[in-house]
Amino acid sequence: MLMRTIRTEEEEGASAALGDDDxxxxxxxxxxxxxxxxxxxxxxxxxxxxxxxxxLFFKVLSYxxxxxxxxxxxxxxxxxFYPKLAESHIGYNYQxxxxxxxxxxxxxKDLVLVPIHCxxxxxxxxxxxxxxxxxxxxxxxxxxxxxxxxxxxx
Length: 154
Prior knowledge:
Blueprint: H1 8-17, E1 26-30, E2 33-36, H2 37-40, H3 51-65, E3 74-76, H4 81-86, E4 111-118, E5 122-129, E6 134-138, H5 148-153
Parallel strand pairs: 3-4
Antiparallel strand pairs: 1-2, 4-5, 5-6
């Protein structure tokens, strides 16, 4: 798939979204995910990426995947899934998330994508690769997955 050139009105819209207007103004939303100007501002160089932007991006990917049959089938976990699963006051706690996939057969999907917020300063991606029967971890800073993959296997 080739990337198209951004149109002038799209670039103007992005500049307006990053402007100095009301930071609480809702700029985008899909289903229950609402993104405000302050969230969009995390896309600029410098700030750390906001979890609502990650969630919205996953939601957009899920809708786009409906139009592209050549894409692997995916289930996109919310950014709060892993903290609820493994970062509670008692550590790993499956009971916190056992109903999160009750409406989806994640084992029928090629991939299950799980965003991981590492040490409060950057994002990594854990992947349950059902098609290749393996667990994967992608971190642009080459950090260790620590217990993430073990927790997802459990």
